[in-house]
Amino acid sequence: MAATPLRFTSVVGISTSTGGIRVDGAASCGGASNINPGIRSVSFPYSSRYSEDSRPGLLTLTRASMASLSSVEKLEVDVTLSPQVNAVKPSKTVAITDLATALFQAGVPVIRLAAGEPDFDTPKEIAKAGIKAIREGHTRYTPNAGTMELRTAICHKLKEENGLSYTPDQILVSNGAKQSIVQAVLAVCAPGDEVIIPAPYWVSYPEMARLADATPVILPTLISDNFLIDPKLLESKLTKKSRLLILCSPSNPTGSIYPRELVEDIAKIVAKHPRLLVLSDEIYEHIIYAPATHTSFASLPGMWERTLTVNGFSKAFAMTGWRLGYLAGPKHFVAACGKIQSQTTSGASSISQKAGVAALGLGYAGGEAVAKMVKAFKERRDYLVQNFRKLEGVKISEPQACGAFYLFLDFSTYYGSKAEGFGIIDGSESLCKYLLDEAQVALVPGDAFGDDACIRISYAESLDTLKEAMERIRKAIVSLKPVGAAF
Question: Which residues contact 353 (CB under 8 A, 6 or more apart)?
């Protein structure tokens, strides 16, 4: 008679890590319901002290005990998730980027303008430092907060470029700025606290607040105001529960930069609320276009003590895959973030940290290597702005101070249009689906950023690629007729 395997779905207190199962009898069985009469017992090694067999280290299951195991197989696994995770939405930027990449790899000539990732290679000096780190054996764990060498270099950068004074124990190096932000939110927010988030916002801010069991409070802005906060609206939204205001300048997804006069007005409002902290996301600070200048929020009077400054290497230095970011702030808050990191990922890559030191050694604001990339980004932006102006019904925010590598364009006058073979364009998501189907260009719908009137275009691609994308978009859009407004 052919043997069938004996299955144990769950046996509490028994470990089978020390060896295989031993069957005493003529055959094994598939479960207690069809135990072969020839089976007398089943024994296997275990780590419990409760032995029912005189032979040390073996547990013997009789026919009766095997029969009782059959009921275990009938129990269903509890697949429920935590409420915080259930409340979190998947990232649309990641989802669309992954879809576009899959289509491209399948042979579909999709132009991918969804991801916030520079198309440039990491500058050679930085890459060489990473290679050297591997060759010299810098491949082990570093201190949780980051190497002293890198934290000291970050302190120097913040002092020279941002007018901020920190010591190495007030710096926490992480696996990307995204980790720095979520750890800060988790560290300072309690259940029921409010996180004030201007919209349009980076897709992850509200979800990070929800992970902390905090409440995201969305502060709408207008394209006519270049998507910048109205201080009076901010003041009206603040309550005793307000714990954290998140500012991103230059902005993802709009590219807008907060002028110094405006951040000074915001700082005066913040100062009236003792519980209110500010998380200043400055990851795009070096990608700015003249005459724009960058102001670090922590440099404003009275704001150092309540500001958590986040920055990193991904955008300006084209180091997205190196996964390296950092948090700077008062030691009390930074140490709390460090505790979270120590119990989750631990420190950032030792190799990436060596590369980070090289990046900060390129010179003020990244030196010539970064300046060349910024020059190319501006040329691409100017081209797109000039051509989108020619499309009927498209509204463009054109602040004097702008940066990053995104355009956030209002296409809402096309909502309600019917596309032949596609259907009704009823919002930013359906418009992006239409452009992916019709033009084979991947963009991100504005509803992911809290503004359904717009779509985000990343111009972190070559000018030739952008020219081709522009032509495809133009052909797809001109076949629609804008509705809801007169021109």
Answer: 142, 146, 147, 149, 150, 173, 324
